[in-house]
């Protein structure tokens, strides 16, 4: 990830560009006022002696006209007098309003104001909107940022658990009620690639998903649901990825209770897949990584040897005694490999074994 200072500098540059785009009409009209007005006075205004004023004096006169304090004397020229009457109210409405709004938006970013988040979101395209700044939402944000994706977070409560942590990491965080019709548009959801509904309210997550699809029909929707039956119906009806916390946690907790070597599990279609740690003892030493895959269907994710870990070791790597392998396989294949190495079912927890802690929020999002 980029250093915070560099990321903050780039965010400010994008913010400046976004403000320039938003105020382009004001800036254009201001340029017309401060260039066209002086040029007109320079071309049209004549002193009582019949002399033309220079551009600097005309600019000086235009500037003070904004405050109703003309610096040039009255002349009998109706075009000049019309401009003298039009510039003060027009200039105040244009410049004063534009300057006030620009200054407000510029300093609002230090208060994490809704306007600041909206402007920053306008600079993004293909980002991910995460609704919910709780434990699950925070971990999803962390995972996405590690993969280099831009994220905008929406949270209803200012005192939510990870609001301060997200702000410290300079993640755009919108404090707003997701039921508000202006909430999702402020996150530029129409240009987002995906939205993750990770609040602890099933109904709120469904409402967010429906609103997001209405604003962006092509957005990918991921919904966290607590009701298993509801998650299946949502997946089929709305073509969204609906994840039930209980269904994610159940296999991991069941397998962790059976075998401390299993560190992760998930379902792939109808297959129960496990990730386990195997220490090379009887049977495994002298085999190659490819032989373990071909004979037992186990993919070697990493190999630890001598305190160093190698990801995706080559197929011709020979396993040595004492190596620790991270293996991914279906549960039946895992049991077949364990039988081959003559490792019995662990009957009870040993006080030397680590106690797995399985939480639904610990599941990484890929």
Written account of the structure:
This protein is of the alpha/beta class. The chain is 46% helix and 16% strand. The protein is built from 13 helices and 11 strands. The chain has helices at 4-22, 24-44, 55-65, 78-108, 114-122, 135-146, 163-168, 183-186, 202-215, 228-238, 245-258, 289-296, 331-340; strands spanning 128-131, 151-155, 173-175, 194-197, 220-225, 241-244, 262-268, 271-279, 299-305, 308-311, 324-330. Strands 3-2-1-4-5-6 form a 6-stranded parallel beta sheet, sandwiched between helices. A 5-stranded antiparallel beta sheet has the order 7-8-11-9-10. Helix 6 links the parallel strand 1 (128-131) and strand 2. The radius of gyration is 32 Å and the shape is elongated. Mean pLDDT is 78; it is low at 344-366. InterPro entries: NAD(P)-bd_dom_sf (IPR036291), RCK_C (IPR006037), RCK_C_sf (IPR036721), RCK_N (IPR003148), Trk_Ktr_HKT_K-transport (IPR050721).
Secondary structure layout:
Layout: H1 4-22, H2 24-44, H3 55-65, H4 78-108, H5 114-122, E1 128-131, H6 135-146, E2 151-155, H7 163-168, E3 173-175, H8 183-186, E4 194-197, H9 202-215, E5 220-225, H10 228-238, E6 241-244, H11 245-258, E7 262-268, E8 271-279, H12 289-296, E9 299-305, E10 308-311, E11 324-330, H13 331-340
Parallel strand pairs: 1-2, 1-4, 2-3, 4-5, 5-6
Antiparallel strand pairs: 7-8, 8-11, 9-10, 9-11
Helix pairs in contact: 1-5, 2-3, 2-4
